[in-house]
Amino acid sequence: MEAEALVTSLRNQLVDLLGRDTVVTEPHDHEPYCRDWHGDMTSAAVAVLRPRDTGEVAAVVRACRTLDLDIVAQGGNTGLVLGALPDRPERQVVLSLERMRHIRSIDEDDFSAIVEAGCVLEELKLRLEERGLFFPLTLGAQGSCRIGGNVSTNAGGVNVLRYGMTRELVLGLEVVLADGSVWDGLSTLRKDNRGIDLKQLFIGAEGTLGIITAVAIKLSPLPERIETALLGVGDLHTAIALYRHARRACCDLISAFEFMPPSAFTLAREAQPDLPLPIATDYPAYVLIEISSSGLIDAKQLMEGLLEQAMEESLVLDGVIATSQAQARQLWAIREGMNEGQALRGPHLRTDISVPLSRLAEFVAEIGAELDDALPQCLAVAYGHVGDGNVHLNVLPPAGATLAERHALIGQAKKMINFRVDHYHGSFSAEHGIGRLKRDEFEHWISPVHRRLLEALKRAIDPEYRLNPGCQLPSITAR
Amino acid sequence: MEAEALVTSLRNQLVDLLGRDTVVTEPHDHEPYCRDWHGDMTSAAVAVLRPRDTGEVAAVVRACRTLDLDIVAQGGNTGLVLGALPDRPERQVVLSLERMRHIRSIDEDDFSAIVEAGCVLEELKLRLEERGLFFPLTLGAQGSCRIGGNVSTNAGGVNVLRYGMTRELVLGLEVVLADGSVWDGLSTLRKDNRGIDLKQLFIGAEGTLGIITAVAIKLSPLPERIETALLGVGDLHTAIALYRHARRACCDLISAFEFMPPSAFTLAREAQPDLPLPIATDYPAYVLIEISSSGLIDAKQLMEGLLEQAMEESLVLDGVIATSQAQARQLWAIREGMNEGQALRGPHLRTDISVPLSRLAEFVAEIGAELDDALPQCLAVAYGHVGDGNVHLNVLPPAGATLAERHALIGQAKKMINFRVDHYHGSFSAEHGIGRLKRDEFEHWISPVHRRLLEALKRAIDPEYRLNPGCQLPSITAR
């Protein structure tokens, strides 16, 4: 009762300091900000704060210092590791950037733009496409995620193998620091070697070192021709050999290279029963490949040439090239339907692993056999952006399992997988980040030297531990 | 005399701690380590230390702590901003990585390698080429520079527009920290989002935060066909329009795009009187363009197609495509001879500027007119990697000028140029770094918030200010 009164008092003080328009006070209005993307977790906060510009973000930070509140910055709340979900409702606020969605400038001749953190990725991409420009970041959540969140989590997606992670698409940042000051690093220069590159600190820091309010992004010419094909292959090993061949054959113009097991079709059909399946569904494995081009280079010719070579060298058993955009969308619908199908099967283990590409096939075979052996009742599904050495190895408990049984199976599978990942010098978080979900794995993995560096950094940049405490490394970020 | 005795005593103590083999004690043997690449500056040091492995580097750091000495790390000593040149001979040692030149591993299937910091860039490139692999970093100094220095300075070069700066070619690092501990971040993973990306701190820090001892690098397939052409164009504005067109037309397979003024030919001939000039030398401006490809893409067809379009659209006035590797080398010899020719004209102002590409032509025209107006006796030469918005705008005093007159003219030109660069939100160091040469510009440019962040970072990572004090920001790095 006393705690509740305290929270109410804090809310009122926030309204006094920031105005009614910025502060969402009603707990029932907090829900969309305090529930994670998968719907697995709900939380609460003292308030949700929705500033409209950089000055207001700075004012929010100062107000929170005054009231001794901690700040969890949030973009589209589409993260997969609970990085933007408050976990101490009585002393944290959610700072939502959703009202800062202005595109400040687009410079076609410079292939750059400056956008506010709350800009929705898909809206941004469409606005740029109208001008013949391309922002390569492409993710399932792009209709909801926001560019500030993409940068804070260094998002990946399907285009990484050609264009890089978000980090490589960022030219500059504007960041509100823990003391309320604004670091203006919003340059659009492509080359700038003026000392230590401070923006790198904030990319992938999940809001623990500063609050990103605007981003200068690097653009590319819009691809004019996109060719998509679904290929049946012998196994993951061959799929990786195909990728290596394709890199050389197509000068790295491959914009996506997604691996799927045969169960992809079953799972996709469970989510979308009418989904057409354009290829026999009993090959050992599948690859969804996309080649895009502009100007003098003909993506169609490239795709046909690549497949001809790959067939000759027995890297591909069968394949279908989409003959229309509608068919290309259907091929992608299998890849995306696969995710939905897994969700429909109830709580399961989702992982986001990378190992060196040269060892990926061996890794997946080994852990696959171990899981089959130890947990024969579960379905293990390995798929993903294998061109980057990145695989989502998910484990689905059987249909009849209770929630308790599911959690037990998930825990067991996770332990086995993490052990194997360690052994292969891989990463348990290739693209999703750490957040609050992977803190234990992170604690377990980091070396004493790595920990000391992180501690020193946090102390240096956010000495009061006010920004997203509990995220990444609780022992150093929570007060 | 007393100071000399102290230095001798320190030298002897270093030998006691590290062994005779690691310590170069004789001052006359220090010279190659204590003179800058241009030969403009010479300095001295207590000793030059040449460890053979990471453990010995750590031992050097510990010994220097014991003796209260500061450490200037050095690779090939080819830097252009005095970043690796000691400036307090009585309390600094040079730590040369030159004996750590081992390639620890090459993984062809993973397109990655792990190499020690002292590996000479050209040797590394050749070793990789034998295996069909390509490390894209390409610089004038590649026969002498070393990979650790390339990473510490985030080196640029002619291939940046296709492959990025050195930062984008680094997958992992091994770093000896100021307390002698070793941070092992030597992963070859292409995607790894386990929290804050610590390696970014050390890239471009010029040895002020740690000593890089090994690097995991990202490789590409070796280009199989390289086409080179020299084009006459109307002006810089048209050259930039040509680059924009070429990006789309060739899907960013342009591996070099160098701009040169007509004086390039005069200067190159001064250095190499027999250099053949394959094109009329009186066009207003020139572009040296290179397109490289492998597999199914024919660089020759691309180059011919691009030039045909560019002629039609009047972006190019004249052009010659090299018909042999020997001819391609001759075209590059003009670009390189131009540098030598400038050196032969005696001390002059060298700059390394970037501005947003959309404003580069305007910037060069404006500052060009200002310089012609204020310093008509000097020759201003603008050339460089303009595809990245990067231009070297050098100012050459007249032949008869005394050294004092030269210094006065250089100072005046530098002031004018920096003022204009500021005005265009450009960078006074697009690729060369800060070192000791550009400290004043850096001091002048950084905002109070930027300075506070740098100070906090330095204090956090090198609390005794032992690593390369005097480099970048003396006020925060010198004790």
From TrEMBL, chains A, B:
Chain segments annotated as coiled-coil in the UniProt record: none
GO biological process per UniProt: respiratory electron transport chain
GO molecular function, a single term: FAD binding
Annotated InterPro entries: FAD-bd_oxidored_4_C, FAD-bd_PCMH, FAD-bd_PCMH-like_sf, FAD-bd_PCMH_sub1, FAD-bd_PCMH_sub2, FAD-linked_Oxase-like_C, FAD-oxidored/transferase_4, Oxid_FAD_bind_N
One Pfam family per UniProt: FAD-oxidase_C
Keywords, alphabetical: FAD, Flavoprotein
FAD-binding PCMH-type domain segment(s): 41-222
Key word Transferase present: no
PANTHER family: BLL6224 PROTEIN, D-2-HYDROXYGLUTARATE DEHYDROGENASE, MITOCHONDRIAL
Family designation: Belongs to the FAD-binding oxidoreductase/transferase type 4 family.
Protein name: FAD-binding protein
Species in which this protein is naturally found: Halotalea alkalilenta
